[in-house]
Structure formats: C-alpha cells, structure tokens
Structure to design on (125 residues):
C-alpha cells in the first residue's frame, strides 16, 4: 500500500519537479514581479509531492487512494499553470515543453498508481 520515499520513482520525480518549480517561481517573482501567480504555481506544484508523502502513512487503501487522487488533481492544476505561464510569455517554449513533459509524466504515474490501487480494493456487491 505505501510508497517508499527513498526509491519510489513517483516520489523521486515529484521531488525533482517540486525543486524545479520552486526555482522557477523564484525567477517569476524576481524577473516579472508576479508574486500571486508564482505563489499559486508553487502551491499546486509542491502539493503533488506533499500528498504523495502523506500517502506513505495512509491508514487504509482508501486513504492511500485519496491522497494519490489529491496529488493527481494538483498535478493537473500545475499543468494548467505551466500552460498559462507559457502563453503569458513568462516561460520559454523550451522550458514549457520541459516542465509540461515532467508534469505529464507525473500525471501518468499517479493515474497508474490510482488505478492499480483501486483494482486492489475488495469488490463490493
């Protein structure tokens, strides 16, 4: 049920993504003085890993799925913000494709974890 924080690919990738997004948000504040926007992006991007981390202490499979689902929602929101940053000319096309690919990979991993976990739940009649 739980994810190991040290060697689990989704945990590692979400940490690396969070760090990249923290650095990006610092640059947004510095270069564009967009504090509210940077804060919103930062909240959604770092919440992905925070909820994955919280899932490691889930009390049940349903609790685990709930935390993973929240991570998935936060990843979807972050994907939206990455798109907005690109269309507002705050990030370059190269950065857009890089951040978008990383976020999309997290979405795919989290979707897979959620589906696999749901399949392990006892079937209700």
């Amino acid at each position: 049920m739980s994810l190991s924080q040290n060697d689990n690919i989704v945990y590692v990738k979400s940490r690396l993504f969070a760090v990249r997004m923290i650095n990006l948000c610092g640059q947004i504040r510095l270069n564009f003085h967009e504090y509210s926007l940077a804060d919103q992006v930062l909240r959604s991007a770092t919440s992905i890993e925070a909820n994955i981390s919280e899932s490691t202490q889930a009390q049940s499979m349903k609790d685990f799925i709930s935390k993973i689902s929240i991570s998935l929602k936060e990843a979807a929101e972050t994907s939206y913000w990455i798109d907005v940053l690109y269309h507002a000319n705050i990030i370059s096309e190269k950065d857009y494709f890089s951040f978008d690919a990383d976020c999309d990979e997290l979405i795919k991993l989290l979707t897979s974890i959620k589906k696999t976990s749901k399949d392990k739940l006892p079937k209700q009649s």
Q: What stands out?
A: The radius of gyration is 16 Å. The chain has one domain: 9-118.
